[in-house]
């Protein structure tokens, strides 16, 4: 196991200690404690080789300028740290730290490390200071100036730590090879240079940057249904409380949200025979009107509405809370609700078999209201799923029919107008009614059936089965057309995943047209998808530039892609310069090796002649053991050279001319 000494330097409070602690312990320190001197150790594997990494932490304050160099002897690599939120710490890299390191350890490789990258905002500003954060380009420019490697890290997010220290170990390995070669030359020849050659550091490829995060807009399902409860549009059920207080409601919501009222409503109209109530046994109309069902005095069917009279001891305000719970999953009780009001709501909830509402009241009473939103979310999801399964595209109970390619799709005005302002406006127009069923018939000439059903599924349930949908762009178009911003964001997310899948093997041959997708996303107001496409094209610039649709990029998008292309042109130029320098050094190395071989051959020839003269003169017995060994090496070299000449002379010929070598 190789031992490596790594010393970290930099201004005070730039994140040196956090960098080491987070790397060695995988945890971020809870408080800031200024460092004087500290040591850490880590055993790591890099390229299949084990290393013991000794990490030396130093103080950056001026008070310790005289003590700090005591940590420098036998250092293998320096990490100069600076904070991206403190531009002065980057300036001090060239003003203070490089001069100090070059003075004490001129031949030790250096790595420039940007710390606290999590403080960078999207616009490059700092979240803790008024000054903007330093950019990666500024850091790489300084690294290039001081001929150092470069890395960006966030100790808080554990981002870039492993790659940073792996890179440092790689620099040490390269430097040790150079030093070993230099020492070998120095031990063999007196003409070696006084200083080792500097390590040729390859340019650092800048990060491509993460793809824009596509955020799903918050659900408005609860608010939509609360609004329709207050407005009482298209209501078909009337509750009578306190003898003369009417509260309007909707049959479809009561069916989906309350098993109790499902039994009540299934006792009368034909809907009682559909799938929605096949699993429950309806109350009999006789029992309801005889007062045998607790909480209900009577139920009467009118031409347009069902009228349900509640027991007189149920207050209108209390039952209003119950309806809010059924429509939104929450009774919307204030935090300072009176205990008496809570008791009334709990009592009515128990009468109508609403266990979740009882739990919500208990949580409020115990001051654990934070548990209630999750209950509401669960209930809304369950009600939406039942609404989709029981009522979407079901003829019984419907009052709207859409016609697509000759096929009929049944729906409900209350759902459509509640969830879509565009749909609500459609019902205010002049649509003809079909026959005696009083169905509003609306032709949809442009949308495919599967795509339109995906839109209706979202309106009914607040969810959409987009995983298996083959026309996501069609759904996106309808979502924009019917003003459904949350569905737009859902489509953006699934389309971005589809782009990743389609281009996972080879972008140049991928069937998906990302440029066309970008242009369409802009038309459909899908801003997040457009940003994703720009980033995807920019970070795969070389591949997309060879596709024929690349020319279809609009001027503004082309400019953005050129400015944000990855790898950037500056990096490609640095790679070309590095390769030229590498080739130049390689040629110099080959020339030096050839010169060394020639000089070795000349010296060995001279020694061999000297040995022959000594043996002829009868002085072979006086030759030392050391010189005998040198003679044997010379003889083996002559033999090897002879064999090489034999091989070269005999190649391509059936009969080779051999040369005898005397030993």
Automatic annotation (TrEMBL):
Biased composition (Low complexity): 644-663
GO terms, biological process: small GTPase-mediated signal transduction
InterPro entries: BTB/POZ_dom, P-loop_NTPase, SKP1/BTB/POZ_sf, Small_GTP-bd, Small_GTPase, Small_GTPase_Rho
Coiled coil: none
PROSITE patterns reported for this sequence: BTB, RAB, RAS, RHO
Disordered: annotated segments: 586-663
Chain intervals with Basic residues compositional bias: 625-643
Composition skew (Acidic residues), residue ranges: 589-616
Membrane-crossing segments per the record: none
Keyword terms: GTP-binding, Nucleotide-binding
Location of the BTB domain: 235-335, 398-468
One Pfam family of this chain: Ras
CDD domains registered for this protein in UniProt: BACK_RHOBTB, BTB1_POZ_RhoBTB, Rho
GO MF, one annotated term: GTP binding
Protein name: Rho-related protein raca
Organism annotation: Plakobranchus ocellatus
């Amino acid at each position: 196991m190789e031992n490596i000494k790594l010393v970290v330097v930099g201004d005070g409070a730039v994140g040196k200690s956090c960098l080491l602690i987070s790397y060695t312990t995988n945890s971020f320190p809870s408080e800031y404690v200024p460092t004087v001197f500290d040591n850490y150790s880590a055993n790591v594997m890099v390229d299949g080789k084990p290393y013991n990494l000794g990490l030396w932490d130093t103080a950056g304050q001026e008070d310790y300028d005289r003590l700090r160099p005591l940590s420098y002897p036998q250092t293998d690599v320096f990490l100069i740290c600076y904070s991206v939120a403190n531009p002065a710490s980057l300036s001090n890299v060239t003003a203070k730290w490089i001069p100090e390191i070059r003075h004490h350890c001129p031949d030790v490789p250096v790595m420039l490390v940007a710390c606290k990258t999590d403080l960078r905002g999207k616009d490059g500003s700092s979240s803790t200071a008024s000054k903007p954060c330093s950019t990666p380009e500024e850091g790489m420019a300084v690294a290039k100036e001081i001929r150092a490697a470069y890395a960006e890290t966030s100790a808080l997010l554990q981002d870039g730590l492993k790659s940073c220290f792996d890179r440092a170990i790689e620099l040490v390995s390269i430097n040790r090879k150079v030093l070993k070669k230099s020492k070998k030359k120095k031990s063999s020849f007196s003409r070696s240079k006084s200083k080792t050659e500097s390590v040729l550091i390859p340019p650092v490829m800048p990060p491509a940057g993460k793809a824009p995060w596509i955020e799903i807009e918050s659900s408005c399902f609860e608010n939509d249904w609360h609004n329709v409860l207050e407005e009482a549009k298209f209501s078909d059920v009337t509750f009578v409380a306190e003898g003369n207080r009417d509260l309007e409601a909707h049959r479809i919501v009561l069916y989906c949200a309350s098993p109790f009222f499902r039994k009540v409503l299934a006792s009368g109209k034909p809907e009682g025979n559909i799938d929605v109530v096949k699993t429950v046994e309806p109350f009999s109309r006789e029992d309801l009107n005889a007062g045998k069902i607790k909480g209900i005095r009577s139920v009467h069917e009118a031409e347009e509405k069902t009228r349900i009279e509640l027991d007189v001891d149920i207050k209108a305000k209390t039952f209003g809370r119950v309806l809010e719970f059924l429509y939104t999953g929450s009774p919307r009780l204030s935090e300072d609700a009176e205990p008496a009001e809570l008791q009334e709501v709990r009592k009515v909830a128990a009468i109508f078999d609403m266990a979740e509402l009882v739990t919500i009241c208990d949580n409020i009473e115990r001051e654990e209201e934070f548990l209630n939103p999750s209950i509401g979310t669960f209930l809304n999801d369950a009600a939406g799923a039942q609404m989709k399964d029981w009522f979407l595209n079901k003829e019984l109970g419907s009052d709207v029919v859409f016609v697509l390619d000759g096929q009929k799709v049944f729906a409900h005005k209350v759902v459509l107008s509640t969830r879509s302002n565009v749909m609500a406006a459609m019902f205010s127009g002049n649509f003809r009614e079909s026959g005696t069923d009083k169905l509003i018939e609306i032709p949809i000439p442009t949308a495919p059936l599967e795509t339109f059903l995906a839109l209706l599924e979202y309106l009914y349930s607040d969810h959409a089965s987009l995983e298996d949908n083959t026309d996501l762009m069609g759904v996106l178009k309808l979502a924009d057309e019917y003003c459904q911003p949350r569905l737009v964001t859902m489509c953006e997310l699934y389309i971005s995943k589809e782009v990743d899948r389609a281009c996972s093997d080879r972008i140049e041959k991928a069937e998906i047209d990302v440029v066309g997708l970008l242009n369409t996303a802009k038309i459909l107001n899908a801003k997040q998808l457009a940003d994703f496409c720009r980033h995807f094209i920019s970070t795969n610039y070389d591949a997309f530039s060879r596709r024929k649709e690349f020319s279809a990029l609009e001027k503004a998008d082309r400019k953005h892609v050129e400015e944000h292309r990855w790898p950037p042109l500056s990096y490609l130029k640095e790679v070309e310069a590095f390769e030229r320098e590498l080739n130049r050094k390689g040629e110099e190395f080959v020339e030096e090796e050839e010169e060394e071989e020639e000089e070795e051959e000349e010296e060995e020839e001279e020694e061999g002649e000297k040995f022959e003269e000594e043996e002829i003169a009868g002085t072979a017995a006086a030759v030392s053991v050391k010189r005998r060994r040198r003679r044997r090496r010379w003889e083996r070299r002559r033999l090897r050279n002879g064999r090489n000449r034999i091989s070269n002379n005999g190649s391509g010929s059936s009969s080779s001319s051999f040369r005898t070598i005397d030993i």
